[in-house]
Structure formats: structure tokens, C-alpha cells
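Worked example 4.2. Below are the chains of a multi-component assembly; read each line carefully before continuing.
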Amino acid sequence: GDSVTQMEGPVTLSEEAFLTINCTYTATGYPSLFWYVQYPGEGLQLLLKATKADDKGSNKGFEATYRKETTSFHLEKGSVQVSDSAVYFCAPSTGGGNKLTFGTGTQLKVEL
Amino acid sequence: NAGVTQTPKFRVLKTGQSMTLLCAQDMNHEYMYWYRQDPGMGLRLIHYSVGEGTTAKGEVPDGYNVSRLKKQNFLLGLESAAPSQTSVYFCASSYGRRDYEQYFGPGTRLTVT
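Applying the procedure described above to all two chains together yields the following C-alpha cells:
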């Protein structure tokens, strides 16, 4: 079945540091790719998405590029803020029902 | 615009009791989903629906039943709760197109003692 591999957390960074969270996936067909963010005590919110190869999704300074040849969708941000502290989930969407497959998530902690 | 709402927010059950979680969406979405979130395991799909009157099993359906009698509502039932069902439950909805995201509710924290 479909699966997602994300780097283990927690990832702890200083404010204004560069962020990379790696994501690789296996999926049947041609998935759309999503990054979701979950702040403490809340549900998941869409951060960004890409729907075809070489597309770049971006939002709030975060970016990720759909790399079909390496089945990857790594998340990057040039300068993180304390308010970016959250859990980040990479998820391909495939199959009947456009179901999302989640990895374990990567917890990010940003310190002053 | 409320988006996706879930009722209740918190619940404590004793083993063997039953309960129903309600999910409602006001975006006229065709597809709806129930997930559970456990520490270190991400989110796992329990059941989903691609339209009013239809349901299908996800990754972890055992011990749960669902119904989609109205397009805007998706109910998740536990007939005989077990401690292994202690979790946070999230509902989501979507237009169902491949390129369209799912919108999530705020979650229900369920504890089974």
C-alpha cells in the first residue's frame, strides 16, 4: 500500500534558521502531494500542495517541489519563526476516494 | 462559515459502552473521512464516504461503524468501546477531486477506561 517516510522529530531550531523536513513516499498512480500543519490542540490545516511533477507549492514562506523521479516532496523555509512551532505532515492523495496517507509527522520546535 | 465541526470535543467512556461522534460540514463537500490520531503513528483512516448514502472501509475500520444519511453529516459509531480506541478522532471533508485538499475538524478526544 501507499506509505510516507518523514524524518523523525523533534527538530529544534533557533529563530531565523533554515528549515528542511524530508518526505519520501510510495503511492499508486499519480498522486497529488500535500503538506499539512497541526498546531497544539488543533486539527490539521493545509500548508501547501502540488498536483503534478515539478510543481512548486508555497505558502507563508514554506516551499516544496514535487519530484516524481525521486518520489519526494521536501518542505523548506528560509527563516523560521517561533510561531512555526508545530507538527508537520506530508501526505500523498491517491486512489478512489482521494484518500490521504500520512506519515508519523515531524515536530518542529523553534526557540529564540 | 463554520467549515467542519465535530461533536463532542471530549468524552470519557467505560469499556463496553457505546457512543456516536458527529461530524458536520457546511461546504457542500461530496467526500467525508474519519481518522484517528495516536502518538507516534500519524493519522490513520477509519472509514470514508464518497457521497450521501455511501461508506467504505479505510485502514483501521474494525470496531467502528459509520453512516452518511445526509450529505453534510458523517457519523462515527463505537458499539462496544475498548481501551484500544482511546485516541483523538478527526473528521475531514473534500470536494473529492484529485487536486483538492481535505478540510479537517478540530478533533474529539476520546478516553476509554
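Take a moment to check your reading of the output against the notes. The mean pLDDT of chain B is 95. The radius of gyration of chain B is 13 Å.
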